[in-house]
Design a protein that fits this description.
Shape: elongated
Strand content: under 5%
Helix content: 55-70%
Number of strands: 0
Structural class: mainly alpha
Order of helices and strands: HHHH
Distance between the termini: 26 Å
Radius of gyration: 20 Å
Largest sheet: none
């Protein structure tokens, strides 16, 4: 993949991921604030999910976004080092189609299938 195209894709995906993380943190804060002064027993409410479940779900999604940001930063470092688009296992080129689908890919398809 052309380095300029790769940089643009990494930046584009990073911006979207950072925005998603901000939104998730705002949702989490709203859930916490909304339940701060409530004495409702949502653990036994058959009508929907519990506040604890919602907090856990949002927390998990936020952790995933944070992990993705770290992977995107690592991809940018590899791009600067000239190793982006090379498989970390075998050294072969990672296909442009794979990098387009997964901009943070560290391994080629063949090596990803091997454990």
């Amino acid at each position: 993949m052309d380095p300029d195209v790769a940089r643009h894709r990494i930046d584009e995906v990073r911006a979207a991921t950072a925005a998603r993380l901000v939104s998730l943190r705002e949702q989490f804060a709203a859930i916490v604030a909304g339940s701060e002064f409530s004495t409702a027993d949502d653990e036994h409410d058959p009508e929907g999910s519990t506040i604890a479940f919602e907090r856990a779900k949002i927390s998990g999604l936020a952790r995933d976004a944070e992990d993705e940001l770290r992977e995107l930063d690592a991809a940018a470092v590899r791009l600067d080092a000239g190793t982006y688009g090379r498989c970390e296992r075998c050294g072969s080129a990672i296909s442009d189609a794979r990098l387009e689908a997964l901009v943070t890919a560290r391994r080629c398809i063949d090596c990803t299938g091997r454990r």
